[in-house]
Amino acid sequence: MPTRRTFLGTALVTPLIAGSITQGADSGARDGELAVMTYNLRFANEKPPNDWPTRRPIVAELIRRYRPDVIGTQEGLYGQLRSMEADLEGYGSIGLGRDGGSRGEFMQVFYRQDRLEPLEYDHFWLSDTPEVMGSSTWGNTNRRMVTSVRFLDRTTRRQFHFWNTHLDHALQGAREKAAELILRRIGKQVDPKLPLLLVGDFNAEARANPVYDTLVNPAALQDTWYLAKERRNETANSFNGFNPLRENGERIDWILARGPLSVRASEVVTFRKGDQWPSDHCPVMAWLEWS
Length: 291
Hints:
Blueprint: E1 5-6, E2 34-40, H1 52-66, E3 70-74, H2 78-87, E4 91-94, E5 109-112, E6 116-125, E7 145-153, E8 159-166, H3 172-189, E9 196-201, H4 210-215, E10 222-223, H5 224-227, E11 230-232, E12 253-258, E13 261-268, E14 284-290
Parallel strand pairs: 2-3, 8-9, 11-13
Antiparallel strand pairs: 1-6, 2-14, 3-5, 4-5, 6-7, 7-8, 9-12, 10-12, 13-14
Helix pairs in contact: 1-2
């Protein structure tokens, strides 16, 4: 297994180095809380009305309003992510293209530099050969991966691990194998004394798919959504498909945790401008504190 990468900078790290629906509230963290977001950005495209130039300022406004301390993004492409970093003053980011180098979609992690200090980061692929860049062995045509970062929280002086992933959209078998691999690697690589967050687009409905059962159970991880004292937009689906919001409570974007914690609130963020969604997913957020 290759040596993990110790973080040496704060710039973009790439190989080039329950209730009614609400939107747009000021949802900053309280003192000591960590505001966590998972967000499938939808890859940049040039076809209106959902092209990236149209969506870019809405994504930036959403993030500025909610001011998450750490964001796990999925599907972002290199140029798209560079434009986001330019838009988001005070944020650094870490990631690698899933096809190697700057190629393909990233599991980019954005973080507030005044709050969090990255200590080390790593990447692996969801396959039988996780150390092989761009590998895919379970029949899925899209390469899938995990980006992980160990952070120091400058406010609490505590460390925690942050893992960001995107499971396959087509094959249930690939999703199940990916969940099993992620849990094995967490068990082998992460100090059990340190808290951990696993976020992403799991392409599986919470509480309605074996992937969820694998990851969320007393021997594995907890779902911060159900730990929350308050759940905002509880009926909103986290996937909107650039269509009118559906309210079946189907959530495929999760924020999971290991370690003792309390969660004040969680939210499916339904912010948009008129009829224009910033992405085909709604971000999901949690405001939490480690015990």
